[in-house]
Amino acid sequence: MAAEKHCDRMGRASMSAAGGRYFLETMGCQMNRLDSELVAGQLRALGYEPAGGPDDADIVLINTCSVRQHAEDKVYSRLGELRQLKRRRADMLIGIIGCMAERDGDAILSECEHVDLLCGPNQLARVPELIQAVLAERQRPVALMENQSRKLSPAERSLALDSLEAIDLNRVIPTDGSVLQSYVRVQRGCDKFCSFCVVPFTRGPEVGRPPANIVQESQRLADAGAKEITLLGQTVNSYAYQENGRTVRFAELLARVHAVSGIERLRFVTSYPGDFTDDILEAMRDLPKVCEYLHIPAQSGSNTVLERMKRHYTAEQYVDLIERARAIVPGISLAGDFIVGFTGETDDDFEKTVALVERVRYSNTFIFKYSPRPGTAADRRLADDVPPAVKRERNMRLLDVQKRISLADRQRFIGETLEVLVEGFSKAAIKAQDAEQTRGHEVGWRRSDQLTGRTRGDEIVVFTGPASLIGRFVGVRITAATALTLHGDVVEKTEQSPLPVTP
Ligand code: SAH
Ligand code: F3S
Known about the structure:
Layout: H1 2-17, E1 21-26, H2 30-45, E2 49-50, E3 59-64, H3 69-88, E4 93-98, H4 99-111, E5 117-119, H5 127-135, E6 142-143, H6 154-169, E7 181-185, E8 187-188, H7 199-203, E9 207-208, H8 211-223, E10 228-232, E11 240-243, E12 246-249, H9 250-258, E13 265-269, H10 278-286, E14 293-295, H11 303-309, H12 315-328, E15 333-340, H13 347-360, E16 364-369, H14 377-381, H15 388-411, E17 417-425, H16 427-438, E18 450-454, E19 460-464, E20 473-481, E21 485-493
Parallel strand pairs: 1-2, 1-3, 3-4, 4-5, 5-6, 7-10, 10-13, 14-15, 15-16, 19-21
Antiparallel strand pairs: 8-9, 11-12, 17-18, 17-20, 18-19, 20-21
Helix pairs in contact: 9-10, 13-15
Bound molecules: S-adenosyl-L-homocysteine (SAH) and FE3-S4 cluster.
């Protein structure tokens, strides 16, 4: 039996050299999307081609998210489907990578015998080696962090940095003109330990990447055609890197990436309200490529809740920061995250959150129901005592409040001409075409003339225009607004696009 399996494995090893197929499914945040892109690049460098779905893949990897229970439940349900598939296709390799591998690896290995490998988010440079190990019949290789729940000493930090840099440094960037917008990591991990949050446990301590590497990667992306770069970190504004005896901070990093030729828009997510200094706002004002957009989660408007969350700022300090942002960066668009139904949240606490949302007038918010995460301080010390029905009700109420604000916020653009970077066909148009195609009508992509793109403030704009505009900056005069979308007419092309149209 073992010998037969060995044959299978060897057969698959030689098949991989001839170009096996991989399917990589990504759950969760932007950091996961970037990680998946880097892992996919590694697999292509090994000779694997992307598969259309798990059915025709030799390797299936799920890049997982642990931030809420719901995200983990989705992975277990996907693993249930893959168990069936592997019954029919015993030689398929299944790997769990990302945050859940780190947080729940033992359970996955014991409950899911069909999972062949585990790899945490800080070890992704080792995915090829783990795949080779499975192919060479090493049972269930695992790459996880050794000690994820503490801050690093400066010496440990620099050691960690060297091993962690590998995956970003070896990034495979497509040169076929398909890269328009891209993420670049500026820091890993998080040292904040908000009491509800699993991220410091799954992604480990905060480590800033060397500025020279960030600039070099941005330049490579620009050379490949990228026009917009989003710098990624859990708390980007606390970015710090020791260089020649001095500390490079985030405002300076922004200026250095700003100098990369070819990049026309620069964004960054996510900001932490606690360490947000005015030099960053001034950089946003003074560096023309830096978009007037700030994603800065408040989580709650109640100081008692913020205290229990261990966020280390008050609602008043948060509002003060927002006012400084509005004063220094005129026209800035704001986005925030909120958790409703956190431990002990009373009606009065929740009303304070509603009041904060109404005061700040975000253009967009992401609202989550509190989900206790094993191992976090909140889960160990505080009861999850807000009933699910109350969480649901508060969630809906806050969504309603935000919807009203988003609509009013977007209506202010009616009559204005905004700069839009055209990303592709509008999803609604694509859906309509898919429906046509499934009814048996052959519909060419180019028949769609509903395009979509984003403003500097990250608002989505839908408008009519030829596919040749994809990849270009255009001026769109806004004629209508919904809570989620702006609609308008192209009034000018602001630039000639070097990008080919990729239907
Ligand atoms: N700084 C990170 C935060 C990661 S988690 C970033 O945005 O990149 C993203 C959001 O998920 C948080 O801002 C918070 O609003 C929400 N969240 C985190 N832990 C949660 C939990 N246990 N339950 C519900 N929502 C949570
Ligand atoms: Fe999580 Fe707080 Fe860090 S929300 S990612 S611990 S800033």
